[in-house]
């Protein structure tokens, strides 16, 4: 019975999250037509500052909230309530400092003062949504989680359209207000709900445990932001805005696979932690291997159909973006693997490897970009990103082994999956201009995948339908 519940929760959560995130990406062309390039730049600037400052105000507390479910199973509501207030103290400290120096902060961030205030108030409450969704995932309450995701997505898009027309003279404000206010109100609701259920603001043991796990996540978070953003900044500097636009366009399509892998990682996290808690490492390896089989197929399929999808999503002038698809999708595969290895490190309460690995990855990415982008162009940024994520995968594999004492994962099987994506993906890339041959191979790929996995597919579908 539990297997059915787990399978259904993982499947529904993954499909719904992927669909909703995909909708957000696919509506982007609508907003680009409503906003000027300057407006779009202001929105991107606001979003970037949210990501950066969240590393400090949130203190990386999402990690102990995840680990706390198995660490404090009988007092989890109290634990989350206390950790939430720790995040509030941090956020309010940053907010007060910013308000006392509002002119300086506004100029530094290049954001109007009212939006600066909104940004910091948003940072106080939005994490409560993530904390709530973490608990729901571990309780396999996928329906409630899906409802929250639907409400936040629909509200964000709807409010964005409303405020864009409301602030017609400065439409970027409307695009910022849409997602910010929708998440802020949701966060406020769940913030109060967590307090009511947990009734705990300060607990020395909880705070000490949370900070032990979370502090290394601050440099980790900053390094991951750098890893994701450095390439575009350096393309802009060394090649120009046109090349940056091509890279960003291809990157947006390729990272659809990241939405899927991130959703899958979040969906199987509860099962990974449950099996680690029971010392059932073989079950963890089998679970990840089964998911890897699916991701390998989807990644290759995404590469195979990339030229036609890019033609649909953008005009002919953007078609050269197809050459960045292969390395970014392979990098997304490596990213999924390192996230699974990181689960073992977090369960072992050893998060120092998170910071070390991410800082080194960001440095590697920066140095390679510095050498290769000026000489070979924007396409190389995709390959430097791939190398960064490959490093993280290998580093965290050994980090997980060191933290747990033995190998939890069969690295040979993982590397075979990775090699399949690289080899078959490269073949598809070489056949980008030979559409008939490519789609014959895609059809063969689908048939072979189904024949080799039909029993697993039928078993999973049967579990989900019960």
Would you write up a description of this structure?
There is one protein chain. It contains 20 helices and no strands. The chain has 2 domains: 1-213, no CATH class; 216-466, no CATH class. The model has no long low-confidence stretch (mean pLDDT 81). The chain is an all-alpha fold and 466 residues long. It is globular and about 60 Å long. Helix 7 (113-125) runs parallel beside helix 10 (171-198) and helix 15 (281-313) runs parallel beside helix 19. Helices cover 86% and strands 0% of the residues.
Helix share of residues?
Answer: over 70%
**Terminal CA distance:** 9 Å
Radius of gyration: 22 Å
As a percent range, the share of strand residues is: under 5%
User: What is the count of DSSP helices, taking H or I runs of 4+ residues?
Assistant: 20
| Element order: H for helix, E for strand | HHHHHHHHHHHHHHHHHHHH
Shape: globular
Q: What is shown here, in short?
A:
With 466 residues, the protein is mostly helical.
Q: What is the fold's blueprint, element by element?
A:
Layout: H1 2-26, H2 28-34, H3 37-57, H4 62-71, H5 76-100, H6 102-109, H7 113-125, H8 127-138, H9 142-166, H10 171-198, H11 204-214, H12 217-238, H13 241-254, H14 256-277, H15 281-313, H16 325-347, H17 352-376, H18 379-404, H19 411-430, H20 435-465
Task: Name a few traits of the molecule.
466 residues, mainly alpha, 2 domains, 20 helices, globular
């Amino acid at each position: 019975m539990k297997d059915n519940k787990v399978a259904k929760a993982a499947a529904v959560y993954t499909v719904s999250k992927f669909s909703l995130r995909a909708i957000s990406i696919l509506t982007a062309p609508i907003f680009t037509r409503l906003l000027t390039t300057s407006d779009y730049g202001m929105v991107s600037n606001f979003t970037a500052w949210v990501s950066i400052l969240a590393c400090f105000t949130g203190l990386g507390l999402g990690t102990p909230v995840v680990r706390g479910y198995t660490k404090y199973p009988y007092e989890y509501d109290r634990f989350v309530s206390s950790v939430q207030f720790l995040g509030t103290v941090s956020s309010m400290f940053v907010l007060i400092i910013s308000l006392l120096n509002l002119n300086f902060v506004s100029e530094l961030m290049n954001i109007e003062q009212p939006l600066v205030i909104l940004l910091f108030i948003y940072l106080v409450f939005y994490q409560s949504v993530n904390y709530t969704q973490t608990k729901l995932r571990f309780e396999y309450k996928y329906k409630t989680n899906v409802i929250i995701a639907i409400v936040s997505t629909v509200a964000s898009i709807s409010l964005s359209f409303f405020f864009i027309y409301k602030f017609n003279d400065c439409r970027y404000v409307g695009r910022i207000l849409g997602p910010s206010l929708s998440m802020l109100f949701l966060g406020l609701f769940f913030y109060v709900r967590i307090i009511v259920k947990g009734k705990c603001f300060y607990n020395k043991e909880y705070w000490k445990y949370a900070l032990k796990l979370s502090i290394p996540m601050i440099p980790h978070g900053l390094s991951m932001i750098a890893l994701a953003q450095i390439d575009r900044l350096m393309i802009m500097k060394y090649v120009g805005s046109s090349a940056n636009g091509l890279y960003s366009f291809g990157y947006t399509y390729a990272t659809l696979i990241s939405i899927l892998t991130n959703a899958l990682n979040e969906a199987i996290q509860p099962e990974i932690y449950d099996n680690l808690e029971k010392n059932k490492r073989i079950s963890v390896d089998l679970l990840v291997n089964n998911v890897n089989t699916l991701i390998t197929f989807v990644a290759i399929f995404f590469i195979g159909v990339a030229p036609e999808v890019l033609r649909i999503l953008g005009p002919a002038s953007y078609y050269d973006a197809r050459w960045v698809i292969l390395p970014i999708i392979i990098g997304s595969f490596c990213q999924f693997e390192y996230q699974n290895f990181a689960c073992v490190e977090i369960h072992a309460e050893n998060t120092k490897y998170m910071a070390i690995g991410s800082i080194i990855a960001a440095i590697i990415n920066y140095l390679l970009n510095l050498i290769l982008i000026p000489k070979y162009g924007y396409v190389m940024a995709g390959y430097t990103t791939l190398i960064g994520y490959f490093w993280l995968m290998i580093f965290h594999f050994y980090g997980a082994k060191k933290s747990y004492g033995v190998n939890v994962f069969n690295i040979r099987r993982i590397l075979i999956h990775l090699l399949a994506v690289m080899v078959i993906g490269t073949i598809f890339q070489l056949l980008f201009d030979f559409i008939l041959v490519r789609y014959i191979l895609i059809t063969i790929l689908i048939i072979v995948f189904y024949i080799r996995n039909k029993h697993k597919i039928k078993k999973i579908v049967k579990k989900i339908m019960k």
